[in-house]
């Protein structure tokens, strides 16, 4: 590996067959970011990214595991995310770079490990907002009574508006994130308060029989599909927490990342655990119950309908769309920073990392991610038809996002273990109380979830989609990208093994 840089040099160290190209100070000036975020903004970024999963998506696990199966699966996945987020909190404070997962793996596993981890997250952050905007369209279609053929209009309009808001500036982006996250949580709390007097857990949450049929009077088994149902529900339980790990992508836009990132992550996962189990219990325990919710595209709207009837429910559901918007807006933010960081370091084409001249936001990275997601959605929709397209986008793309996320979790947890072992000298302003055990549990649970996805034919289409994504990315990096790397902050830190502060470009 040869290293050249007019920004200063580090000792060459052969690794991964990569080459660093010469850049000057204008390269990083054209890729500048602004610092703005404090603890509240970071908390909102993490919670906002996930909160849509408490409005739609999680409920599909009711049809695969029944209420009990999904509950146990959610406990297992919550343990995985605790181990993951506390590991990430330690690594993000020690390596406060925009690259986040790619940065952790780059330091622990070299350039190929960093790139593969970056590809895993790239699948997640490009596909997840596509699934979220699909659910937004589903809600809006139910509220306004538009035909299924109108759905793509909602998707295109959503991307135009929220990519635009993210481009305007980091201050506005975080202010919008905080407002919509608080509104989304307020909507969930309003549902909890409304549902508690109407709860009939035994009748509604346990209304699925062992043969998968509906039990009108309830009283069904806690685990109607046994242990298999728990395993089948793991990918859907992930939807209750998916994307909390994006928070470290704000490292270079955080005022004090070494202090604030761990605080934001811990507050975020605590909030999500409480909300996840409240919605799982209450949404399933009102009229229609688990059997109907297992097939619903808008479970919270169905819950409001059960309590208030169709009229008021539509008004409340319009407010509930804010929850989906919160995730859509914040994951577009993450998508832009994730593509930006890989591009700035040369793993992706470098032009993608150029930031807006005055607003200092990665507008090209966000635009590329949005276009790829929209093309994917529209290609599916118009090639297989509206009805089948809805199933593919709401199911197959969701599984692609979960599969990419699970792979990235394995890589990040392994990075944590390797950094603890091989780089104990790195300053760690925060240390995970779960340590290596927490990271090991993350790996085990993520691998079990991956194994189930690979063994179940329902999920294979999504897995195949991720495999194609990986193949294209790896071919590009092997033939071109690995010869065009740049000494970005992530790369300098990795090459110095954390023994000196990376230069501020």
TrEMBL record:
Subcellular location as annotated: Membrane
This protein's UniProt keywords: Membrane, Transmembrane, Transmembrane helix
Membrane topology: Multi-pass membrane protein
InterPro entries membership: AA-permease/SLC12A_dom (IPR004841), APC_superfamily (IPR050367)
Stretches that traverse the bilayer: 36-55, 67-89, 125-146, 152-169, 176-196, 225-244, 265-291, 311-334, 364-384, 390-411, 432-452, 458-479
GO cellular component: plasma membrane
Protein name: Amino acid permease-associated region
Species in which this protein is naturally found: Ancylobacter novellus (strain ATCC 8093 / DSM 506 / JCM 20403 / CCM 1077 / IAM 12100 / NBRC 12443 / NCIMB 10456) (Starkeya novella)
Taxonomic placement: Bacteria, Pseudomonadati, Pseudomonadota, Alphaproteobacteria, Hyphomicrobiales
């Amino acid at each position: 590996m040869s290293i050249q840089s007019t920004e200063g040099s580090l000792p060459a160290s052969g690794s991964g067959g990569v080459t660093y190209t010469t850049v000057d100070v204008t390269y990083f000036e054209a890729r500048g970011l602004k610092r703005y975020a404090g603890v509240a903004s970071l908390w909102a970024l993490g919670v906002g990214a996930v909160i849509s999963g408490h409005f739609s998506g999680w409920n599909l696990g009711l049809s695969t595991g029944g209420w009990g199966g999904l509950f146990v699966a959610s406990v297992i996945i919550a343990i995985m995310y605790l181990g993951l987020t506390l590991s990430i909190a330690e690594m993000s404070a020690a390596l406060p770079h925009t690259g986040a997962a790619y940065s952790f793996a780059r330091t622990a596993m070299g350039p190929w490990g960093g790139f593969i981890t970056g590809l895993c997250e790239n699948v997640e952050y490009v596909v997840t907002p596509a699934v979220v905007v699909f659910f937004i369209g589903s809600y809006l279609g139910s509220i306004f009574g538009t035909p299924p053929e109108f759905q793509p209009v909602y998707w295109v309009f959503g991307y135009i508006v929220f990519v635009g808001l993210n481009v305007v500036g980091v201050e506005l982006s975080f202010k919008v994130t905080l407002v919509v996250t608080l509104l989304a949580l307020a909507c969930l709390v309003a549902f909890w308060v409304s549902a508690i007097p109407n709860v009939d857990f035994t009748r509604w949450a346990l209304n699925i029989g062992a043969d998968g049929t509906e039990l009108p009077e309830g009283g069904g088994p806690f685990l109607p599909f046994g242990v298999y149902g728990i395993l089948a529900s793991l990918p859907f339980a992930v939807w209750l927490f998916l994307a909390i790990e994006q928070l470290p992508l704000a490292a270079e836009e955080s005022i004090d990342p070494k202090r604030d990132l761990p605080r934001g992550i811990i507050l975020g996962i605590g909030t999500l655990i409480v909300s996840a189990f409240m919605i799982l219990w209450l949404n399933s325990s009102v009229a229609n119950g688990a059997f109907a919710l297992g097939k619903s595209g808008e479970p919270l709207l169905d819950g409001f309908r059960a309590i208030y009837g169709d009229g008021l429910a539509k008004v409340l559901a319009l407010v509930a769309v804010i929850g989906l918007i919160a995730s859509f807006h914040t994951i577009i933010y993450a998508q832009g920073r994730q593509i930006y960081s890989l591009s700035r370091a040369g793993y992706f084409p470098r032009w993608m990392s150029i930031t807006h001249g005055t607003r200092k936001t990665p507008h090209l990275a966000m635009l590329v991610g949005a276009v790829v997601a929209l093309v994917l959605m529209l290609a599916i929709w118009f090639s297989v038809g509206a009805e089948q397209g809805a199933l593919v986008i709401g199911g197959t793309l969701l599984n692609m996002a979960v599969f990419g996320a699970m792979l990235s979790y394995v890589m990040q947890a392994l990075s944590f273990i390797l950094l603890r072992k091989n780089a104990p000298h790195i300053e760690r302003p925060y240390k995970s109380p779960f340590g290596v055990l927490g990271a090991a549990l993350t790996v085990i649970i993520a691998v079990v979830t991956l194994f189930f996805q690979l063994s179940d034919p329902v999920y294979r289409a999504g897995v195949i989609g991720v495999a194609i994504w990986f193949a294209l990315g790896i071919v590009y990096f092997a033939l071109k990208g690995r010869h065009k790397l740049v000494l970005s902050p992530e790369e300098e830190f990795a090459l110095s093994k954390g023994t000196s502060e990376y230069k501020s470009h």
